[in-house]
């Protein structure tokens, strides 16, 4: 029994490379010259490649756009060789002349892996689903549930595969609106007649200038005996 289980395990391991290579068997390849953003790169032969069926945050201001480019650079470094897989059921070029491809490197589907990491989201142009649509949707659901990548950086981003991803702009939460000051309420005991220019609470108890400033009524004019001793220099102005 142990020998049988070992034999099955050996066969399964042997099949994995075959399954991975089957997706790219006979596919052309190219070497990365530069990475523009999270879903576009250029090959050394001059061809620009738009990764098929995914969309990354727009460079130049959208939240997580720089991190998305970094993720693509990690999976497809400059100088690395990639297999370029065509999807026969989808367009091969876009309106900008870029070739539309699934990228493979070291047995990894780069398009799917970017979505799994939360660096991109599924994008089914015209609602057309390619051969890896189910895997892309599952990867996006997993990343969103775990708040990976753009899903954590921009929690309000919506998963809408028929539309380009929109993460908005990153930044601190907006400040709460400034509320106008509350109107001053006269003290329950009325105002001290020894002062004018503001409603100074009657004596006793004693109040000082800090109290009046907190009430927003300093300075005040002293027109009587100054029981609170607010006029320290005798100029008939208190708390100036």
Structure description:
It is built from 6 helices and 11 strands. A hairpin with a 2-residue loop joins strand 6 and strand 7. By secondary structure, the protein is of the alpha+beta class. The strands form 3 sheets. A 5-stranded mixed barrel has the order 1-2-3-6-5. The radius of gyration is 35 Å and the shape is rod-shaped. It has helices at residues 2-24, 65-75, 110-116, 133-145, 150-153, 209-215, and strands at 29-35, 40-43, 48-51, 54-55, 81-85, 99-105, 108-109, 121-122, 195-196, 220-222, 237-238. Helix 3 (110-116) runs parallel beside helix 4. Mean pLDDT is 84; it is low at 4-21 and 181-185. The relative contact order is 0.11. It has 2 domains: 26-153, OB fold (Dihydrolipoamide Acetyltransferase, E2P) (Beta Barrel), CATH 2.40.50; 187-240, no CATH class. The longest helix has 23 residues, at 2-24.
Give a brief description.
The protein has 6 helices and 11 strands. It has about 240 residues and is an alpha+beta fold.
SSE blueprint and pairings:
Elements: H1 2-24, E1 29-35, E2 40-43, E3 48-51, E4 54-55, H2 65-75, E5 81-85, E6 99-105, E7 108-109, H3 110-116, E8 121-122, H4 133-145, H5 150-153, E9 195-196, H6 209-215, E10 220-222, E11 237-238
Parallel strand pairs: 3-6
Antiparallel strand pairs: 1-2, 1-5, 2-3, 4-8, 5-6, 6-7, 9-10, 10-11
Helix pairs in contact: 3-4
Describe this protein with a few key phrases:
five-stranded mixed beta barrel; 6 helices; alpha+beta; three-stranded antiparallel β-sheet; 2 domains; rod-shaped; 27% helix; 240 residues; 17% strand; OB fold (Dihydrolipoamide Acetyltransferase, E2P); single chain
């Amino acid at each position: 029994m142990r020998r049988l289980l070992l034999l099955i395990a050996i066969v399964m391991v042997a099949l994995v490379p075959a399954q991975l290579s089957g997706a790219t068997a006979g596919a052309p390849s190219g070497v990365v010259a530069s990475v523009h953003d999270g879903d576009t790169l250029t090959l050394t032969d001059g061809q620009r490649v738009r990764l098929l069926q995914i969309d990354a945050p727009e460079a130049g201001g959208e939240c997580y756009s720089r991190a998305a480019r970094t993720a693509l650079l990690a999976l497809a470094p400059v100088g690395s060789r990639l297999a370029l897989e065509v999807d026969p059921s989808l367009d091969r070029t876009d309106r900008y002349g870029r070739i539309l491809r699934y990228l493979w490197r070291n047995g990894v589907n780069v398009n799917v892996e970017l979505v799994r990491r939360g660096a991109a989201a599924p994008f089914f142009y015209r609602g057309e689903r390619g051969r890896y649509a189910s895997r892309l949707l599952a990867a996006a659901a997993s990343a969103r549930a775990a708040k990976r990548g753009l899903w954590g950086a921009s929690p309000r981003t919506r998963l809408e595969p028929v539309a380009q991803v929109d993460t908005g702009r990153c930044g601190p939460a907006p400040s709460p609106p400034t509320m106008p000051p509350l109107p001053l309420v006269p003290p329950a005991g009325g105002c001290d007649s020894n002062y004018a220019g503001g409603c100074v609470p009657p004596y006793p108890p004693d109040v000082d200038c800090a109290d009046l400033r907190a009430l927003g009524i300093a300075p005040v004019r002293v027109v009587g005996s100054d029981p609170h001793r607010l006029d320290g220099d005798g100029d008939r102005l208190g708390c100036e």
